[in-house]
Amino acid sequence: MVRAAILPAVGSPLEIADIDLPEPGPGQVRVRLTAAGVCHSDLSLSNGTMRVPVPAVLGHEGAGTVVSVGEGVSHVAPGDGVVLNWAPACGACHACTLGEVWLCANALSGAGNVYARRASDGTELHPGLNVAAFAEETVVAANCVLPVPDGIPLTDAALLGCAVLTGYGAVHHAARVREGESVAVFGVGGVGLATVQAARIAGASTIIAVDVSPAKEELARAAGATAFVVASENTAREIRTLTGKQGVDVAVECVGRAVTIRTAWESTRRGGRTTVVGIGGKDQQVTFNALEIFHFGRTLAGCVYGNSNPAEDLPVLAEHVRNGRLDLGALVTERIGLEGIPAAFDNMIAGKGGRALVIF
Questions:
Q1: Residue 16 vs residues 11, 25, 30, 64, 107: alpha-carbon distances, Å
Q2: pLDDT for res 275
Q3: Given 117, 288, 317, 350, which residue has the most CB atoms within 10 angstroms?
């Protein structure tokens, strides 16, 4: 039996309980988790902002060691360290044929499967975003695991599975930040801190971190922010003041709220670029008038999973880690057990801290 954090129903508290995992079948891999990050997407799944079949074991940002593999699996073997890939591309849908694997139409097809049962009563359980990382062990499709690059500790590698791929990709793939440009990052949680570091790696001349919590300033500056702004109704004006009244070249929104998206857009210069990483609800309506869209010539674009290809980007990120340019540990402000996940959700809602990391 395996201990796991189960979401019994949307909006219900998580329950820590034993589950029964089957042995891996053909094309599957069993993984013993070393660490799992608590991402805002997990909170969005638990409260219904994003849809998920329930009951489910959430958690999608994780790393661990292969326990066993099913027939036909050859790219990993028992004992290998792996990063969980919660959005594996099918390689055959329209988006994949265009090379836009982050938009794969079938990436989450496994989330509706029954992958385990509750030990106490046999209740069927679904694997959250495919990988069910909030558990001591999990069984996933073979394309949901990628070998951990050399020199990356397994605990740190968990962060590569979502926060770092998303933040790095938002800067390097979606916004395409160029050396010398100015960047504002809205929301300094785990993804926001990764975004700040990515902007520094890209050579941004000015990096302005924005958050509702003044306590985030130290974290932001340690990650590479050159300025910090406490979010208010005057945020856009403050950012323009810090950039010679022009506005930043690029704004990256990591919150997913209408007011923050609008403020990020207003904080950019004429011709500036805003990349939205945060996942908001359907009730979050952002409005613009036709004249300002014409006049400012700004670009507003969504960003899914950092517009990343994990298989190609993980080695690049690992090289940044090995060379000291990317500090994975700096994203983590709390190390917890499974029982600590509900409190980590509460801290997210309150805007406290960076990434909480479940250690197994």
A1: 16, 26, 20, 20, 27
A2: 98
A3: 317
Q: Are strands 248-253 and 268-276 parallel, antiparallel or unpaired?
A: parallel
Cβ-based neighbours of 173, under 8 Å, separated by 6 or more: 306, 307, 308
Encoded amino acid at 44, one letter: S
pLDDT single digits (tens) 261-299: 999 999 999 999 999 999 998 899 999 999 999 999 999
209: which strand partners?
Answer: 185, 228
> What's the sign of the alpha-carbon dihedral 285, 208, 162, 102?
positive
Quote the CA–CA distance of 334 and 114 in Å, as a whole number.
31
Alpha-carbon distances of 100 from 71, 232, 317, rounded to whole Å:
29, 36, 19
Q: At 166, is the secondary structure helix, strand, or coil?
A: helix
Over residues 3-20, the mean pLDDT reads 96
Q: Average pLDDT for residues 117-125, to the nearest whole number?
A: 96
Mean pLDDT of the chain: 96
Question: Counting runs of H as helices and runs of E as strands, what totals does the chain give?
Answer: 11, 18
CA neighbours within 13 Å on the CB side: how many for 358?
31
70-116 confidence digits (pLDDT tens): 999 999 999 999 999 999 999 999 999 999 999 999 999 999 999 99
Peptide bond into 55 cis (omega under 30): yes
Asked if 191 contacts 163 with a C-beta cutoff of 8 angstroms, the reply is yes
Contact criterion met (CB below 8 Å) for 193 and 354: yes
Distance CA 93, CA 128 (A): 22
* Helices 235-242, 258-266: inter-axial angle, 10-degree rounding: 30
State how far the Cα of 207 lies from the Cα of 228, in Å rounded to an integer. Answer: 9
Which residues, 6+ apart, have CB-to-CB distance to 180 below 8 Å? Answer: 203, 204, 205
Which residues are bridge partners to 30 per DSSP? Answer: 68, 139
pLDDT band at 160 (very low <50, low <70, confident <90, very high): very high
pLDDT of amino acid 38: 97
